[in-house]
Amino acid sequence: MTRRKIAVVGLGGIGGVAAACLSLSPENDVTVCARRQIDTLTFDHHDDTSRIPLKTLTDPSLAEPVDWVILSTKAQDVASAAPWLDKLCTPKTTVAVLQNGISHEQRVGPHAKGATVLPAIVYYNGERLAPDHVRLRHISGHDLLVPTGPQSDAFAGLFEGTPIDVGISAEFLTYQWRKLLVNVIANPITALTRQRLGVFQRADIQDLSLGILREAVAVGRAEGAQLRDNEAEAILETFLGYPAEAGTSMYFDCLAGRPLEIEALNGAVVAAARRHGLPTPLNGAMLTLLTAVSDANAAGTDTP
Ligand SMILES: NC(=O)c1ccc[n+]([C@@H]2O[C@H](COP(=O)([O-])OP(=O)(O)OC[C@H]3O[C@@H](n4cnc5c(N)ncnc54)[C@H](OP(=O)(O)O)[C@@H]3O)[C@@H](O)[C@H]2O)c1
Description:
Shape: globular
Strand content: 15-25%
Oligomer: single chain
CATH superfamily of the largest domain: NAD(P)-binding Rossmann-like Domain
Helix content: 25-40%
Structural class: alpha/beta
CATH architecture of the largest domain: 3-Layer(aba) Sandwich
Number of helices: 10
Number of strands: 12
Radius of gyration: 19 Å
Strand order of the largest sheet: 5-2-1-6-7-8-11-12
Distance between the termini: 59 Å
Bound molecules: NADP nicotinamide-adenine-dinucleotide phosphate
């Protein structure tokens, strides 16, 4: 049996869970490309804990071409992962991008040496409990969603027999925008207020959220997403049912003083709005404020 050569780039919550699950299939030959050596990954799923041996590389110059790359860094780290892509990719490779936001092809394509870029929506929760310890939580429905296309079935096949359920949809663009809509309120508002989702119980925060969402819905529709007339209200209502004590990744990154994924979220809305001549002052404000926070975090200058 020829095993599928797979490289997972970025061993955080999402990449850790993907690497653990992919390693469960005997048909996959998995290498992890990370910034630190990790030989065994502890993987929690439901009430089970398993210890999964990993083949890890920390030096991009030692990487070799693979059939599949699972790119699971944050969006702002794609450029820093370019040396990995340079060694791993050929025109026969497919790079599945497990990241929030839209425009995955534009973000990753320039670094992928002619490889096919396959965007994936991540619905599962991947929590990094320690650098070598991750937990998978299923949220609802599929764990990953990819668009209908030549690589979709093969991508779903990588996860066959593992806990990750992969969906394939011709309505991918619409689902991508729905996910983005949740992210353009959840992430910036929790990060700026330094409060968990409970902050959305405030009436003033709900008003602000609706304003941000209505701008983004208009842009999503102009981009071709099939969003409903009451999409903004429906997203907010669903969102208010989420646990008040839950945080978001931008909230945790903000508290930890790390760079933020704002450009890929509200930044993507603002960039798409520009293409259609649509106004997005609230998304623009979120982008400006959080870019300033992110830049200060990156420079280590946001200290009292
Ligand atoms: N976590 C979730 O539940 C969840 C859910 C839905 C969507 N998402 C999205 O999924 C994506 C990944 O999120 P995440 O939560 O897994 O992020 P994360 O926990 O911050 O993990 C990102 C990983 O990428 C690594 N990395 C960054 N630059 C790298 C480089 N140049 N070379 C090698 N590794 C590099 C980081 O390494 P270090 O450890 O060395 O910093 C880190 O381990 C994001 O777009 C996020 O928005 C996450």
